[in-house]
Design brief:
3-stranded antiparallel sheet; elongated
């Protein structure tokens, strides 16, 4: 997984990419004290759930693709 954290327009943006799939989380900069808090947010437990969401995304897309291409 490629993990990036940005600060834009008073919002922290956590962008996580795996292959062709992407998850983006936005949080007001007022809700955290800085980049250290954002790095703590991206914990091992959080990333395990993100990984499982990627697995579900891949399966959902694969199923939809197969349904369209078997018509």
């Amino acid at each position: 997984m490629d993990i990036s954290i940005f600060l834009r327009e008073n919002k922290y943006i956590v962008k996580i990419v795996l292959d062709q799939y992407e998850q983006v989380y936005r949080l007001s900069a007022n809700d955290v004290t800085g980049m250290e808090d954002m790095e703590k947010l991206v914990s091992e437990e959080f990333l395990k759930k993100v990984w499982m969401r990627f697995v579900d995304m891949s399966k959902d897309f694969s199923d939809a693709f197969k349904a369209v291409n078997t018509l």
